[in-house]
Amino acid sequence: MRVMGVDPGLTRCGLSMVEGGAGRKVTALDVDVVRTPADAPLAKRLLAISDQVEHWLDTHRPQVVAIERVFANANANTAMGTAQAGGVIALAAARRGIDVHFHTPSEVKAAVTGNGRADKAQVTEMITRILGLQAKPRPADAADALALAICHLWRAPMLARMAAAEAQAAEQRRKYTARLKAAKA
């Protein structure tokens, strides 16, 4: 499976592409950080991010895009910008029929380090080890984008099983409700 990981942000937006094979084997295919000037108009910044993401989607053709879910932030402007960047990216993927999944920072940290409260240095160290990289990915946005992709790759089988179980439960509920209605009639 080929997964694009995205650490959204207006100033720095981390992009990564990984591919997974059997077991927990992961290969990094590409990683980059899109930068936009803080003094540029919002629309121009979002357009720059969108252009880069669309190029990545067309070039790498991921099967899934994993984006960090925006969480509460003391700075509302930062949270808003992060959400807007994530929305632009989700829209670009949706237009191409690519599945989009959102993961919280603690889910990502737990997946790659085993600790949902790991700091950025621990995440970067584990990403370097998992991918067998010669050097640590810099800046942290690049490492975070790789971590998001790996998190989704490793969690995808469980997510698929959960979705199948939920669909089966919904079908059983529908049949049970139909039987109850038939019995009352």
Automatic annotation (TrEMBL):
This enzyme's EC code(s): 3.1.21.10
Active site annotation, chain numbering: 7, 68, 141
Amino-acid positions noted as binding Mg(2+) 2 in the UniProt annotation, renumbered to this chain: 68
Keyword Hydrolase: yes
Enzymatic class: hydrolase
Cofactor: record remark: Binds 2 Mg(2+) ion per subunit.
Reactions catalysed according to its record: Endonucleolytic cleavage at a junction such as a reciprocal single-stranded crossover between two homologous DNA duplexes (Holliday junction)
Pfam family, one: RuvC
The UniProt record lists the keyword RNA-binding: no
Record-linked InterPro entries: RNaseH-like_sf, RNaseH_sf, X-over_junc_endoDNase_Mg_BS, X-over_junc_endoDNase_RuvC
Keywords: Cytoplasm, DNA damage, DNA recombination, DNA repair, DNA-binding, Endonuclease, Hydrolase, Magnesium, Metal-binding, Nuclease
SUPFAM superfamilies registered for this protein in UniProt: Ribonuclease H-like
Residues that hold Mg(2+) 1 according to the record: 7, 141
Localization of this protein: Cytoplasm
UniProt cofactor(s): Mg(2+)
Function, in words: The RuvA-RuvB-RuvC complex processes Holliday junction (HJ) DNA during genetic recombination and DNA repair. Endonuclease that resolves HJ intermediates. Cleaves cruciform DNA by making single-stranded nicks across the HJ at symmetrical positions within the homologous arms, yielding a 5'-phosphate and a 3'-hydroxyl group; requires a central core of homology in the junction. The consensus cleavage sequence is 5'-(A/T)TT(C/G)-3'. Cleavage occurs on the 3'-side of the TT dinucleotide at the point of strand exchange.
Subunit structure of this chain's protein: Homodimer which binds Holliday junction (HJ) DNA. The HJ becomes 2-fold symmetrical on binding to RuvC with unstacked arms; it has a different conformation from HJ DNA in complex with RuvA. In the full resolvosome a probable DNA-RuvA(4)-RuvB(12)-RuvC(2) complex forms which resolves the HJ.
Family from the record: Belongs to the RuvC family.
Protein name: Crossover junction endodeoxyribonuclease RuvC
Source organism per UniProt: Mycolicibacter acidiphilus
Lineage: Bacteria, Bacillati, Actinomycetota, Actinomycetes, Mycobacteriales
